[in-house]
Amino acid sequence: MYISKILNYLTILFLIVFPFIPYRFLKFLYFVPVIVPASWIFTELIPVPRSNVTSADYESVTKSIYRRFNKNITEQGTSNINAFVLVLIMLIIATRFRIKANRF
């Protein structure tokens, strides 16, 4: 269970840091922040399978992170924050592409 949690945290960290990777890699991997969450939605899977957890006991990894800042956060609030973060990531990437295109 501990390794699963660590891998989930690393996946989230990767998605947050993703817009800041060097441009030469970013131009080939631009759609990763969209594909990864979309695959979670369409396949109903999380990045790393949870083990030995019943659905009643399960709390999403992002919700457990957000609970540190807001004790009363709901699943809908968690989904809204996740969507905002993903849109922000894509906006940062698009801005970087635009800035790079205007330089040349």
Structure description:
The structure is a single chain. This protein is mainly alpha-helical and 104 residues long. The protein has one domain. It has five helices and no strands. The protein has helices at residues 2-17, 23-26, 32-43, 61-66, 75-103. The longest helix has 29 residues, at 75-103. It is elongated.
Please describe the topology of this protein.
Elements: H1 2-17, H2 23-26, H3 32-43, H4 61-66, H5 75-103
What key phrases describe this protein's structure?
104 residues; mainly alpha
Low-pLDDT residue intervals, each spanning 5 or more residues: none
Count of structural domains: 1
Radius of gyration: 16 Å
Average pLDDT rating = 78
State which percent range the strand residues make up: under 5%
SSE class: mainly alpha
Order of helices and strands: HHHHH
Gross morphology? elongated
Counted beta strands: 0
Percentage of residues assigned to helices: 55-70%
Number of helices: 5
Largest sheet: none
For the record, give the distance between the C-alpha atoms at the N and C termini, rounded to a whole number. Answer: 49 Å
Please sum up the structure shown:
This protein has 5 helices and no strands.
